[in-house]
Amino acid sequence: MTVTLRAAEPLSKVVEDRSTPPNIVLIFIDDLGYGDIGPFGATKQKTPHLDLMAAEGRKFTSFYAAPVCSMSRACLLTGCYNTRVSIPGVLFPGNTIGLHADEITLAEVVQPQGYATACIGKWHLGHRSPFLPTKHGFDVYFGIPYSNDMAIDPLHAHFSQDCLFREGMTEAKARQGGIRDTVPLMRGEDVVEYPADQSMLTKRYTQEAIEFITANKERPFFLYLPHTMVHRPLAVSDEFRGKSKNGILGDAIEELDWSVGQIMRTLRDLAIDSQTLVIFTSDNGADVGSSAPWRGKKGSIFEGGVREPCIMRWPNRIPAGTISNQIAGNIDLLPTFARLVGTTLSADREIDGKDISSLMFQEDAPPVRTAHLYFTQSGELGAFRQGDWKLFLSDPNKTDETKRPMLFNLVTDPAESLDVAASHPEMVGVLLAEALRQQKDIQDHCRPAGKLEK
After folding, report:
1. What residue numbers bound the domain in which 22 lies?
2. Which helix (H) or strand (E) element contains residue 119?
3. Is the dihedral of CA 206, 209, 214, 215 positive or negative?
4. Catalytic choice (49, 69, 80, 100)
5. Active site residue 124
6. In this structure, what CATH number is given to the domain that contains residue 19?
7. Are 302 and 356 in a shared domain?
8. Is 42 within the bounds of a domain?
9. Which residues contact 129 (CB under 8 A, 6 or more apart)?
10. Count of C-beta atoms within a 10 Å radius of residue 156
């Protein structure tokens, strides 16, 4: 890994002469759909803290992730499409691969500038020791290593001496084999609780986050908070159970909103609110919730599977109560963080994301990137967006014999309901050629995942 340092340059007229690097809090929700929170149209559950965050910050309406868990986290942490870093759609406890040691993560971008770093929540980029957050730039890790519907790796789990075994579990029983929906809770590289009490994860993550922020209030810090909820099985603490008007999903979302409020209050109480950039977004489309108004949900490359709610707030830096409709996504955060903290990334690797600080700070900023690639969970390039146009390289609803490209205008037809490929053959040709060109670039310059022999 090579990171070259330099002094930060002015980002825009909005932040000129305000180059002090911010604290960064990145809240990453699991399986939360575009229409699951108030600022993006939810009405069944109440999200007052996110409503306030949006009123005090900027909403991004074309912010992209990926269809499922691991691939989205690879995009977020490395600034690259997951296919470039060879991370598949979903990693499982039996896998022997993970994020390669040579990849530069968000934490490794900010760490050389003196930042304290923490990952609190779901990791899902490899559960074996060489792939854990502590090997990828995070000083602190507390959370579950993969999705909460999975099971423990009975062969490779390392239990702490004081591990809390619950529900009649013992280490001997755990070594006999994993049980679905029972996952380990880890601190560093050790399992400290098994099975994790999922009803308390949101609260415990929040408390850990507050303690980390408080301990590092006198220095710059980066807190990555990838919540377990609202991935199934849904769970919620007693305080929030039955309180929403949308069942346990609504309860869990309202508890996540409470968590946002607790973090915001902590920043204010410590008088570091104005020094802190807070970003809230999700890893993929809704599973049981709402991806409205888009078509599709989790696992899909229709907009509802990959277009996420995103709010960014930084008082006196990001204009309050504003919206950006420009194309952006989680791959853009790494180069953006690099710019904000004053780190220049090495030129020895391709980075797919772009610095979107202008979209954060400027009013009516022009596009930073006009294109986006949609990779399926199996690693195929399934669709390509250029400006207002989105081309599916083949119709996912057709059989192999009848597959053909589909073309949608996302401005006039945001629901992707009217295929206009037949009436715009020239546009199909242009987009297809560019999609294949960019796909070839990734194939020619992809990097391996980390891999263990067994």
Report:
1. 3-148+196-370
2. strand 116-120
3. positive
4. 69
5. yes
6. 3.40.720.10
7. yes
8. yes
9. 135, 158, 189
10. 14
Digit-by-digit pLDDT tens for the chain (454 residues) are 434 433 333 333 334 335 689 999 999 999 999 999 999 999 999 999 999 999 999 999 999 999 999 999 999 999 999 999 999 999 999 999 999 999 999 999 999 999 999 999 999 999 999 999 999 999 999 999 999 999 999 999 999 999 999 999 999 999 999 999 999 999 999 999 999 999 999 999 999 999 999 999 999 999 999 999 999 999 999 999 999 999 999 999 999 999 999 999 999 999 999 999 999 999 999 999 999 999 999 999 999 999 999 999 999 999 999 999 999 999 999 999 999 999 999 899 999 999 999 999 999 999 999 999 999 999 999 999 999 999 999 867 666 655 789 999 999 999 999 999 999 999 999 999 999 999 999 999 999 999 999 8
**In a domain? residue 9:** yes
The catalytic position among 49, 100, 124, 227 is 124
The number of helices, as runs of H, and strands, as runs of E, in the chain is 10, 20
Query: Which of residues 305, 336, 370 is at a domain's end?
Result: 370
Are 323 and 312 a contacting pair, CB within 8 Å? no
Tell me the whole-structure pTM to 2 decimals.
0.95
Question: What total number of domains does the chain contain?
Answer: 2
> Is residue 136 a contact partner of residue 99, using CB atoms and an 8 Å limit?
yes
Judge if the upstream peptide bond of residue 293 is cis by omega within 30 degrees of 0: yes
Residue 120 and residue 52 share a domain: yes
**What is the residue-wise DSSP string for 253-288?**
HHHHHHHHHHHHHHHHHTT-GGGEEEEEEESSS-SS
Q: How far is the CA of 159 from the CAs of 95, 96, 124, 219, in angstroms? A: 19, 19, 19, 32
Q: Which tokens sit at 299? A: 């696992």
List phi, psi (to 5°) of 49: -70, -35
Looking at the fold, whether 122 and 246 belong to one and the same domain comes out as: yes
Same domain, 281 and 364: yes
Strand 116-120 vs strand 221-226: parallel, antiparallel, or unpaired? parallel
Tell me how crowded residue 432 is: count the other CB atoms within 10 A of its CB. 15
Residue 446 is a catalytic residue: no
Q: CA angle, corner 298, sides to 318 and 177, nearest 5?
A: 115
CB 71 within 8 A of CB 374: no
Distance CA 191, CA 4 (A): 35
| Dist CA 78 CA 86 (whole Å) | 11
C-alpha 39/C-alpha 308 separation (Å) is 12
Beta bridge partners of 310: 60
Q: Would you state the structure tokens that stand for residue 334, as one six-digit string?
A: 């790494």
Measure the CA–CA gap between 245 and 415, rounded to whole angstroms.
27
Q: Cα 384–390–396 angle (5° rounding)? A: 75
Residue type, 11: L
